[in-house]
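As agreed, record copied across for absentees:
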Amino acid sequence: MSDQPIRVLIADDQALMRTGFRMILDAQEDIEVVGEAIDGADAIRRFQDLRPDVVVMDVRMPTMDGIEATRRLSALERPARVLILTTFDLDEYVYEALRAGASGFLLKDRPPEELVAAVRVVSSGEALLAPSVTRRLIEEFARRAPAVKPTELDELTEREREVLVLMARGLSNAEIAKALFVAETTVKTHVGRVLHKLGLRDRAQAVVLAYESGLVHPGD
């Protein structure tokens, strides 16, 4: 584990929310809030100045919402890891944010320790996709997306496709290892190869692609 704290930028148009999130995160020894932004456009400017490890991003903000800000941040040479915050568990905007490049999402009314854990997960390069509410949300809105057949999927080995399917079902590396009767280090290698071959940054994008390509179907 790095000795450097996880640098966080908080983007929310409500000052009270920003203050609350800052107090929760700054209380952790391994997390440092390096800045705040009042909307999406401000978040992009602040990100380029501060270079945080994680952006905690509200969905609904004036001037530029969290989705467009996430899309622009993901397109940068050094893309951001974005944790989306939302008020509603079935929020169409959240699915769009995942498609735009967000690494996961969390409900605003969850306990403080869940926010802390979420920042750590996203910072580590994982995706916050394990909670059942996340799977339900992705399944709900994957129904609306036309199935596409990315040619990149043809480059995956049979085992890599198995790993991608299990990732899309919300399994952790440890759970995938148990399901496939292999070591967790082997799973990590497969996950890395899947992301590299598909040109994806993290598991969140892999899960969305798995649904949209028809490799995994809602309700499987």
Q: What stands out?
A: Strands lie at 6-11, 31-37, 54-58, 81-86, 104-107.
